[in-house]
Design brief:
With about 130 residues, this protein is mostly helical. It contains 4 helices and no strands. The protein has helices at about 1-20, 25-45, 50-60, 65-105. The longest helix has about 40 residues, at about 65-105.
Length: about 130
């Protein structure tokens, strides 16, 4: 039962995050989820016997295993979140670089000495005897 629950929770978190990553409600949901996760972990440290009861109800033998599963899910969510954030940031940098390049572009006919400047001849371009 715990395997199916963890897989469904993980898939739901990733789908929700990817679908709503730019919305303020999703960002607030992530923050609330983080606070709930921290509260759960503090409760697990203070009352490990209660955690074992919950773990047994979910089909896990020990509460520490349940904490491990929760940490793995949390780590997976943070990893996906970080990957998506870095990918979006790289796209923003690329768009910014393109925009700056287009703003500072100089047309060849606007360059001074455009006609006078000839490309340097390579050694291979010389006529051979």
């Amino acid at each position: 039962m715990i395997k199916a629950l963890l897989l469904l929770a993980g898939a739901a978190l990733v789908a929700f995050f990817l679908a709503n990553r730019r919305k303020a409600r999703a960002k607030a949901g992530v923050k609330i989820g983080f606070v709930l996760f921290v509260v759960f972990m503090v409760y697990a440290v203070l009352r490990p016997d209660d955690l074992t009861v919950v773990a047994n109800a979910l089909g896990v033998q020990r509460g520490t295993d349940l904490v491990l599963y929760a940490l793995v899910m949390g780590f997976a969510f943070v990893t996906v979140s970080t990957y998506v954030r870095f990918r979006e940031q790289e796209l923003r940098y690329a768009r910014l670089a393109r925009s700056i390049a287009l703003q500072n572009a100089v047309r060849p006919e606007d360059e001074p000495h455009a006609a006078a400047v000839m490309p340097a001849a390579d050694d291979d371009d010389r006529p051979r005897r």
